Amino acid sequence: MELTRLNKYLSEVGVCSRREADRLIEAGKVTVDGHIAVMGEKVTGAEEIVCGGKPVGKSAGEKSARPVLLMVNKPQGVVCTTSDKDRATTIIELIQYPVRVYPVGRLDKDSEGLVLLTNQGELANEIMHAGNFHEKEYEVTVSQPYNAAFLKKMREGVELKELGVTTRPCRVETIDAKTFRIVLTQGLNRQIRRMCGELGYRVTGLKRVRIMNLRLGRLKTGDFRKVTSREWEELLRQLDEAREERG
């Protein structure tokens, strides 16, 4: 069987980034077949590997099988729920992936763009954790030309009376007279549509183009792909940093 460095293996099965794996190994918190792992150790994945007191990989059973993380360019009209209660095509039906996966958060039926699908519950929770302030970027078109006052209010935070909250300050950049780019660090229900509505604008087009370091890029509408090893490593690094900041 092919040997893989332990830090790379822990990254590939979704435990943590290689940098964090090195820290855990150095701290003596990883064991392989009962012995404390050492830096540079290589494994096949068939061993009994325990990290921070928790079995990982094959020793943890099917639930910790090699993770799947997909990027999907969701078309308008497709829903992110796993049921068809509103008789619309679900994102699971759209891609028909052979492994059971589920959406990381949601993107409403009328919106399009990047949706992540995974088979890793803990990973999904970390990405969606509101306290992590993870960035999500959107391109938004409204029904009429906006002005500087609109952009200022969007950046500073909009009171959403219906929800009883004021949105977090965010980045907003002009694209053209009716279209702007917005980067949010929270995920309130239909947040952008509500923000624009409070300021007298109706959203006519909404596309999510980025979640953290994962960018939609040239992925065609309705298509999907796996994240690359480089994207995966950077995602885990950012999640590690967010955990450290939370303490």
Annotation keywords:
alpha+beta, 9-stranded mixed β-sheet, 4-stranded antiparallel β-sheet
Please explain how this structure is put together.
With 247 residues, this protein is of the alpha+beta class. The protein has helices at 6-12, 18-26, 91-95, 121-128, 148-156, 191-198, 229-246; strands at residues 4-5, 30-32, 35-36, 42-43, 49-51, 54-56, 69-74, 102-103, 112-118, 136-142, 159-160, 165-166, 171-174, 179-184, 203-211, 214-215, 224-226. Strands 7, 8, 9, 10, 13, 14, 15, 16 and 17 form a nine-stranded mixed sheet that branches. Strand 5 and strand 6 form a beta hairpin. The longest helix has 18 residues, at 229-246.
Write a short abstract of this structure:
By secondary structure, this protein is an alpha+beta fold.
Low-confidence stretches: none
Q: Summarize the main sheet.
A: 9 strands, mixed
Portion in helices: 25-40%
Order of helices and strands: EHHEEEEEEHEEHEHEEEEHEEEH
Mean pLDDT value = 89
Structural class: alpha+beta
> What Rg, in angstroms, do the CA atoms define?
21 Å
Number of helices: 7
| Straight-line distance between termini | 38 Å
Q: How much of the residues is beta strand, in percent?
A: 25-35%
Shape: elongated
Number of strands: 17
Please render the helix and strand layout as text:
Elements: E1 4-5, H1 6-12, H2 18-26, E2 30-32, E3 35-36, E4 42-43, E5 49-51, E6 54-56, E7 69-74, H3 91-95, E8 102-103, E9 112-118, H4 121-128, E10 136-142, H5 148-156, E11 159-160, E12 165-166, E13 171-174, E14 179-184, H6 191-198, E15 203-211, E16 214-215, E17 224-226, H7 229-246
